[in-house]
Specification:
Elements: H1 4-30, H2 36-48, E1 52-53, E2 60-61, H3 65-75, H4 77-93, H5 100-124, H6 133-163, H7 167-175, H8 179-193, H9 200-252, H10 259-273, H11 279-291, H12 301-304, H13 312-330, H14 339-343, H15 365-379, H16 391-400, H17 408-435
Antiparallel strand pairs: 1-2
Length: 453
């Protein structure tokens, strides 16, 4: 848990959850109840001992909701909170990762979720006595919906705190379908609570059914996990192929060695600072940065490596690399929207760029980001016909083009974060220097005064 926000979030949930748990323990200790709730508690803990891993995120689910919901229907909210918190404790102890903050969160979050959800039900029902289907069905649905939303979002935010993945994407991709598990548990709870002869025999039958469901669901999740792992391996292979192709392009243009890698680091960092959070768009930015100069394979090497300024005819030939690159990538079924970023990364905000003369927001957002960082890196890199500019001077030149060549918002954001981003690039190239004795052209990085242009 590296971020300050993440630590604060986990601490807040823990404090609130243990407050709910403490109040519930006091209620359980002072209010007489039928001992049958202890049997339900035992089954809740038993079900909690066999969690199911959700593929792709550090989160677990288990089939104990049916018993917890039954406790709410028959005995009230307080015993359900105690049972679910203890189940969370058991789940955490059954895993290898037993950090105190994780144990505390996995007890506090269920306490909050079921405690608040049970209050929704209490406020919307007249009676929860067995046999009163007409008075409990809709409140039970309300409780189930409230529990699912609280439980899934509290966990999705915890995943964000631990991994940095956007919570709404985590929720949509990994938790939304789990609502079926909650409603299945509520259905079982409704049947249990309304049986005329509720007892150990009935619970034994229900437990057997739930065990069969658990085995089937766990097998399904295992197949999903295998498919996810296979897709991740294919993605790694895909990225490796892109990087190999990018290195081949980089090697052809001797004047811009290292440019592609630096642009990639700057582009991805700038995109994140501009609020881009969708993993697909981030990966598109990463891949497009690697391939933004792929069209240079159509440009003769004597033009690419000319030790001087290009003639108008040579410059026209050089400009073809944007459209050629876009055409090449448009024929490939990439997982991310790459081709338009590559084709339009030399368009200008005022419409005077190439190849299509797009202007303003008609230029793809990724291309507007690429345009700024591509220009900045070119200015701060050595060329056969000029020396590299200091970071401050290059940044001032970029700022002067705000609203004419570049998107003003992108330039303003880059101005604010460029020192941080370029320092990351310098650190990355230093790592490469240690890893390999053959180093590409160094990046000038920010000058000491660049933080305050």
């Amino acid at each position: 848990m590296n971020s300050r926000w993440g630590r604060l979030y986990i601490a807040s949930v823990t404090v609130v959850g243990f407050g709910v748990l403490a109040a519930s323990l006091w209620n359980v200790a002072t209010v007489p109840r039928d001992v049958s709730w202890l049997l339900l508690l035992l089954l809740t803990l038993l079900a909690g001992s066999f969690p199911i891993k959700i593929p792709g995120v550090p989160a677990l689910i288990y089939v104990s909701e049916a018993f917890v919901f039954t406790i709410v229907l028959l005995h009230g909210a307080a015993p359900a909170v105690v049972a679910f918190a203890l189940a969370g404790f058991v789940v955490t102890l059954s895993r290898h990762r037993r950090e105190p903050f994780r144990v505390a969160f996995n007890m506090a979050e269920p306490a909050i979720s079921i405690g608040l959800a049970a209050q929704f039900m209490r406020l919307s029902t007249v009676s929860t006595a067995p046999g009163h289907f007409h008075t409990v069905e809709l409140p039970l649905v309300a409780m189930t919906v409230a529990y699912f939303l609280l439980n899934s979002w509290l966990n999705a935010l915890a995943v964000r705190a631990e991994t940095g993945k956007p919570a709404h994407l985590v929720w949509r991709q990994h938790f939304l379908l789990l609502s079926l598990n909650c409603f299945a548990g509520a259905s079982v709870a409704l049947l249990l609570a309304n049986l005329p002869h509720f007892g150990a025999g009935v619970l034994g039958v229900v437990a057997s059914v739930l065990a069969a469901v658990y085995v089937a669901f766990r097998a399904a999740m295992g197949r999903v996990a295998d498919s996810t792992a296979h897709l991740e391996e294919l993605n790694e292979l895909y990225l490796s192929m892109l990087e190999t192709l990018a290195m081949a392009i980089d090697a052809k243009d001797q004047a811009t060695h290292g440019h592609i890698r630096r642009v990639q680091k700057l582009a991805v960092g700038l995109a994140r600072n501009l609020g881009v959070t969708d993993p697909k768009h981030i990966e598109a930015m990463r891949a497009a940065a690697l391939l933004h100069d792929i069209g240079k394979i159509a440009v003769p090497e004597h033009i690419l490596n000319k030790p001087g300024r290009l003639t108008p005819a040579e410059y026209d030939r050089m400009k073809l690399h944007a459209s050629v690159g876009g055409q090449i990538l448009a024929t490939i079924k990439f997982r991310y929207p790459i081709a338009r970023i590559v084709r339009h990364h030399h368009e200008r905000w005022d419409g005077s760029g190439y190849p299509d003369g797009l202007s303003g927001t008609d230029i793809p957002f990724g291309a507007r980001i690429m345009s700024v960082v591509d220009c900045y890196d070119a200015l701060t890199s050595e060329r056969p016909y000029r020396a590299a500019l200091p970071a401050r001077e290059a940044l001032e030149m970029v700022v002067r083009e705000k609203g004419t060549k570049f998107d003003p918002l992108v330039v303003e954001t880059f101005t604010r974060v460029h020192a941080e981003l370029t320092n990351q690039v310098v650190a990355h190239e230093q790592q490469l220097t240690v890893a390999s004795p053959v180093m590409r052209q160094p990046f000038t990085g920010p000058s000491p005064e660049a933080a305050n242009p």
